[in-house]
Amino acid sequence: MQRTKTEILNDLADAVVTMDENRAVELAKEALQANIDAYEAITTGLSKGMEVVGQKYENGEYFIPELLVCSDAMYAGIDVLKPHIKADSIKTVGRIVIGVVEGDTHDIGKNLVKIMLESSGFEVHDLGRDVPLKRFIDESERLEAQIICMSTLMTTTMVGMERVIDMLRGAGLRKRYKVMVGGGPISQSFADKIGADGYALHAASAVKKAKELLGIS
Q1: Could you read off the pLDDT of 163-217 as tens digits, one per residue?
Q2: Bridge partners for 98 per DSSP
Q3: Which among 111, 216, 102, 110 is positioned nearest to 158, based on CA atoms?
């Protein structure tokens, strides 16, 4: 008996939550064979699973290794579905530039935030690590981003975040972008002090904050 669309989408989500990459691939193929829209299979199947993963991470049930393996399952399914996405069905909720500030090469936290943002429908442009401060601004202008996300794990490079905000002010661009900061030594009080618009303690809360900054429920 042919399985229902709801069953397939729920199983896609479950494959991500249970870290089953092979199952995610097979279910993605099944979704296509069942004529389920590829973009819907991603947003209502795989991405929904990643939302559950984010909640588990936030609640302390999952940790960084689990989060990374779950994302592998999600991206494996996406790789199958992506070639079949119709251009007019893609709906991004916002455009973000993200990177680790100059002088810091620690990028696991940044990568986790990127994964969670992408799984929530954001278009994320990853500048990588040790990013020259001016590049955050140059790329945001070029890509017409709405949010600039900066990360660092080192106290010595925290000042770079403030410099980017100062550079935005100096160029008359501060009101054009929302600025989010995060990383091990970063706190809400530091974010407030440097004039950032948002701070996220971890990847799951980064999604909530980004949506809040853009007025997305």
Answers
A1: 999 999 999 999 999 999 999 999 999 999 999 999 998 888 999 999 999 999 7
A2: 126, 149
A3: 102
According to DSSP, the residues that pair with 126 across neighbouring strands are 98
Distance from C-alpha of 18 to C-alpha of 27, rounded to nearest angstrom = 13
Q: How far apart are CA 85 and CA 74, in angstroms?
A: 16
Query: CB-based contacts of 151: which residues, under 8 Å, 6+ apart?
Result: 98, 99, 100, 101, 104, 107, 109, 110, 113, 181, 182, 183
Whole-prediction pTM value? 0.84
CB 182 within 8 Å of CB 149: yes
pLDDT band with cut points at 50, 70 and 90 for residue 21: very high
pLDDT digits (tens, 9 = 90+) for 125-137: 999 999 999 999 9
Q: In the structure encoding, which two tokens stand for residue 165, read together?
A: 């905000």
Calculate helix-pair angle for 47-58, 5-17, nearest 10 degrees.
40
What domains does the chain contain, in order, with CATH numbers? Answer: 5-89 (1.10.1240.10), 94-213 (3.40.50.280)
